[in-house]
Design goal:
With about 425 residues, the protein is mainly α. It has two domains: about 110 residues, no CATH class; about 250 residues. Helix content is about 70%, strand content about 5%. Strands 1-2-3-4 form a four-stranded parallel β-sheet. The longest helix has about 50 residues.
C-alpha cells in the first residue's frame, strides 16, 4: 500500500477490490492508454478531498484512464464542472464505499464512462467525415474553375487519381487543394519581381513624358498590385512548409518600401539613377522568396509556374535596362542586354518544349514569338523615339501574354494533379 498524505488513516474498505476497482488514496494512478478497449478499462476509486484531486489532475492533465469515481466529501458547486472536465465520472458519498452500494456506484460510473467514450468516438468520426468532405469539395472547386468542367467530372478526376495512386480520396483532394494554393502563391510572388522592374521602366518613360496621365495611372496601378500581393501572401495559409519564407517576404516588403520612397520625388535622370539600386534590391529579395517558396512547396511540377512568371520580369527588365541605357548614356547597360536576351530566348524555348500544352498555351506561346521579334526590332532602334516606343509596346504585350500563360500553367491539370 502506497504512502499517503493522510498519515496513518486507512484507505477505503478493501471491498472496493472485490468490485473491480483500484485502491487509490489521494493520488490517482497514471492515466491508461486512451485507445484501450472499453472491456479492459478498470474502474478507479479515489478517496480524496475534491480540491486535492482537482489539484492533482490540474498538474497531470485530464484523466484518460478508465472510469474514475470520487468518494468522500461532496464537491462544491463550482468544483463540479471542473471535475467532469478533468475526467471524473461521478461522485459518491463515503457511505457507498462498501458492499453492494460500492459495486452499484462503480457500475453506474462505468456505464456513464462507456457512453461518454462512445459519444466522443462518434463525434470524432463525424468531425473527420466533415473535414474530408470539405477537402473533397475544395478540390472539386479547384478543378471546376481550372478546367471549366462540371462537379461530376471533377469528382471523377479525383476518384480516378486516388485509384491510380492507391491513395485515399481525401488525401488526393488535400494534395490538389494545397497544390493550387502553392501555385497561386508562386504566381503572386513572381509578380513582385516583375513589378520591381516595371516600376523603374515606368519611371524611365516618365522622364521623357512627365505629364502623361497614362504613365501615372500605370504607376499607381503597379504600386497597388504590390501592396495587394504582399497583404495576400501574408494571410495565405500554406501549412508547415511555409515557415521558411515569411522572413523573406518581409525582406522583399522592406526593399519595396525603399523603392517606393525613392520614386516619390520629381521624375528625372538623377532620381532614376538613385532609384534603380532599390529596384534591384527588391528583385534579389523577391527571387530569394520565390526559391524558398518553391522548395517549401515540395512540388516539382510548380517549377513551370515559376519559369513562366520569370519571363514577365525579364521582358520588363529588358525594357528598363534599354531605356536606362539611353537616358543615362550607360554603355554598361547596353552591353548587358545581349546576355539578358539570351536568357529570355532560352526560357521561351524551354516553355515551348514543356510537355504541358493546351490550345490556349500553344496560341499564347506563338504570339509571344511575334512580340519578342517586335521587341528585338525596337532594341535595334533604341536611340530613336519610335524604337523606344516599340520597346515599351512590345514589353507590355509580352507582359500580358506571360501573365495569361502563367495563369494557364497555374491551372494546368498536370500541375494541379502532379
Amino acid at each position: 500500500m502506497r504512502a499517503t498524505p493522510y498519515g496513518d488513516r486507512q484507505p477505503v474498505n478493501l471491498l472496493l477490490l472485490d468490485a473491480g476497482a483500484h485502491e487509490v488514496h489521494a493520488e490517482p494512478e497514471p492515466p491508461a492508454d486512451d485507445d484501450a478497449g472499453d472491456a479492459q478499462a478498470v474502474a478507479t476509486m479515489v478517496n480524496a478531498e475534491p480540491a486535492r484531486l482537482l489539484a492533482w489532475l490540474d498538474a497531470h492533465g485530464p484523466w484518460r484512464g478508465g472510469p474514475l469515481s470520487l468518494f468522500g466529501a461532496p464537491p462544491l458547486s463550482e468544483q463540479v464542472a471542473a471535475l467532469l472536465a478533468a475526467g471524473v465520472s461521478g461522485w459518491w458519498p463515503s457511505s457507498a464505499s462498501q458492499g453492494e452500494e460500492l459495486a452499484a456506484a462503480l457500475a453506474m460510473d462505468r456505464a456513464r464512462w462507456v457512453a461518454t467514450r462512445i459519444a466522443r468516438r462518434e463525434q470524432a468520426r463525424l468531425r473527420a467525415q466533415l473535414d474530408e468532405r470539405k477537402w473533397i469539395d475544395r478540390a472539386k472547386g479547384v478543378l471546376m474553375e481550372a478546367r471549366g468542367i462540371g462537379e461530376n467530372e471533377a469528382f471523377g478526376l479525383l476518384r480516378g487519381a486516388a485509384m491510380h495512386a492507391s491513395l485515399r480520396l481525401v488525401d488526393v483532394s488535400r494534395s490538389v487543394t494545397e497544390a493550387a494554393q502553392w501555385a497561386d502563391a508562386l504566381n503572386r510572388a513572381g509578380q513582385l519581381r516583375m513589378l520591381s522592374q516595371r516600376l523603374l521602366r515606368l519611371a524611365a518613360q516618365a522622364c521623357e513624358a512627365p505629364e502623361a496621365r497614362t504613365l501615372r495611372s500605370a504607376r499607381d496601378d503597379a504600386l497597388r498590385r504590390v501592396d495587394d500581393i504582399l497583404e495576400r501572401l501574408r494571410t495565405m495559409a500554406l501549412g508547415a512548409g511555409a515557415a521558411s519564407w515569411p522572413p523573406l517576404l518581409e525582406r522583399t516588403a522592406a526593399a519595396y518600401a525603399e523603392l517606393r520612397q525613392a520614386l516619390r520625388g520629381k521624375a528625372g535622370v538623377a532620381a532614376l539613377a538613385a532609384a534603380d539600386p532599390c529596384a534591384e534590391a527588391m528583385l534579389v529579395a523577391a527571387e530569394e522568396l520565390l526559391a524558398a517558396m518553391e522548395t517549401a512547396s515540395g512540388r516539382r511540377a510548380l517549377q513551370i509556374v515559376n519559369l513562366c512568371g520569370r519571363q514577365r520580369m525579364r521582358v520588363q527588365r529588358v525594357a528598363k535596362q534599354a531605356l536606362l541605357a539611353h537616358l543615362l548614356a550607360d554603355a554598361g547597360r547596353r552591353e548587358s542586354l545581349p546576355a539578358l536576351l539570351d536568357e529570355s530566348e532560352a526560357a521561351i524555348r524551354e516553355l515551348e518544349q514543356a510537355p504541358l500544352s493546351t490550345p490556349e498555351i500553344h496560341a499564347a506561346l506563338a504570339e509571344s514569338r511575334d512580340q519578342w521579334l517586335r521587341l528585338l526590332r525596337g532594341l535595334h532602334g533604341l536611340d530613336r523615339p519610335e524604337g523606344r516606343q516599340t520597346i515599351v509596346q512590345a514589353s507590355d504585350a509580352l507582359l500580358d501574354l506571360f501573365d495569361r500563360l502563367t495563369v494557364a500553367y497555374e491551372r494546368s491539370l498536370q500541375v494541379i494533379m502532379a
